[in-house]
Amino acid sequence: MPPRKIIIDTDPGQDDAVAILLALASPEEIAVLGITTVAGNVPLDLTTRNARIVCELAGKTGTRIFAGCDRPLKRPLVTAEHVHGKTGLDGPTLPDPTMPVEDTHAVDFIIDTLRGEPAGTVTLCPLGPLTNIATALHRAPEIADRIQEIVLMGGAYFEVGNITPTAEFNIYVDPEAAEAVFASGVPITVMPLDVTHKALVTTPRNDAFRALGTPVGLAVAQMTDFFERFDKEKYGSDGAPLHDPCVTAYLIRPELFTGRHINVEIETRSALTLGMTVADWWGVTDRAPNATFMGALDAEGFFALLTERLARL
After folding, report:
1. What predicted TM-score, i.e. pTM, was given to this entire model?
2. pLDDT for 218-251, tens place per residue?
3. What is d(CA 280, CA 263) in angstroms, rounded to the nearest whole number?
4. Is residue 264 within 8 Å of 190, Cβ to Cβ?
5. Mind listing the pLDDT tens digit for each residue in 35-82?
6. Phi, psi (degrees; rounded to nearest 5) at 118
7. Which residues are catalytic?
8. Strand 200-201 to strand 240-241: parallel, antiparallel, or no bridges (unpaired)?
């Protein structure tokens, strides 16, 4: 099987960084056509900077990076420095990036790539708010039929919300964009908090990253050392959930995940539940299924894969 062609759409973010590293370390399964950035965890200038830092950390300076939308479709930007630190990549001390950012806007790159590659051969992998993806679908509706799949991190059902009582951060930041993506008819696979909260970086798992003895292993360990303080305090968990690497791991080892093909709708009007992913897990409505919503993870297999691949960089 040739490697799966993907575009990573991201707002790094420590867990985004690990997701990117896993993709760049897995060329047999994944061909990264480009990385597009969006405002989310931190503003766009920092997410773009962080994407460059991560690629340089991986030694993959030929990776093409495209800056995208700097605000949600209809709302003021909400960011998450309280989780990720003021840079978005707080934890390790990494050098300033030198690799270039492409002149093309991220949305144009997404559209041009989907038009240029054979239909059904490019997967979009959003790790942050869905602004770039929704904008591309709005500007060029015909690309919906050309997308192989959208595999995204976002939403929640049983785990409800992490930025409000009912909403997960990525969906909450731009619920109108999420609504458009889930209504697009494109095959969608969702990594919600229900599965990502099972990908916990416990002390032994983080020690395994550190024990790699490489700049990548050390940086990942330091990222999760910083990142986990928030989740340990908030949830009382044993470590930080690695949300976004679930997307990349699914592309490499889909058998690590189980879920259901269900209907998922996005709440955009209620002040109380804005950004909620209303997931019909139990099939109690007549709404047609539009997404595969993951619910379970083989955590030991996930961390074995992640550690083995990070060791390559």
Report:
1. 0.97
2. 999 999 988 766 665 666 667 789 999 999 999 9
3. 5
4. yes
5. 999 999 999 999 999 999 999 999 999 999 999 999 999 999 999 998
6. -55, 140
7. 243
8. antiparallel
Gyration radius (Cα) of the chain, Å: 18
Residue 154 identity (one-letter amino acid): G
Q: Inter-axis angle of helices 299-310 and 203-210, to 10 degrees?
A: 20
Specify whether the CB–CB gap between 132 and 107 falls below 8 A.
yes
